[in-house]
């Protein structure tokens, strides 16, 4: 069962694109990790999805 699905998610600040066209699907019981350098937009992506 899919518990989260997102398609073509994107975000930019002051004309600087953090990410674009993000597609994801999370299944029930899945374990996920979000890894990347500071300032890459990890927290921003999670805020958009919640």
Brief synopsis:
This protein has 50 residues and is an alpha+beta fold. It is built from one helix and two strands. Residues 20-50 form the ABC transporter domain.
Describe the structure.
- With 50 residues, this protein is of the alpha+beta class.
- It has one domain.
- It contains 1 helix and 2 strands; from the N terminus they run E-E-H.
- The longest helix is centred in the C-terminal third of the chain and has 8 residues.
- It is globular and about 35 Å long.
- The mean pLDDT is 92.
Q: What spatial order of strands do you see in the largest sheet?
A: 1-2
- Spans of 5+ residues with little confidence (pLDDT < 50)? none
The shape is: globular
Number of helices: 1
Radius of gyration: 12 Å
| Average residue-wise pLDDT | 92
Number of separate domains: 1
The span between the termini is 19 Å
Question: What percent of residues adopt helix (DSSP H or I)?
Answer: 10-25%
Number of strands: 2
What characterizes the major β-sheet?
2 strands, antiparallel
Structural class: alpha+beta
Q: Write down the secondary-structure element order.
A: EEH
Domain ABC transporter: 20-50
GO molecular function: ATP binding; ATP hydrolysis activity
Pfam families: ABC_tran (PF00005)
Keywords: ATP-binding, Nucleotide-binding
């Amino acid at each position: 069962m899919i518990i989260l699905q997102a398609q073509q998610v994107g975000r930019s600040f002051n004309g600087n694109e953090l990410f674009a066209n993000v597609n994801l699907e999370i299944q029930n019981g899945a374990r996920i990790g979000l890894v990347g350098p500071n300032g890459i937009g990890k927290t921003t992506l999670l805020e958009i999805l919640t």
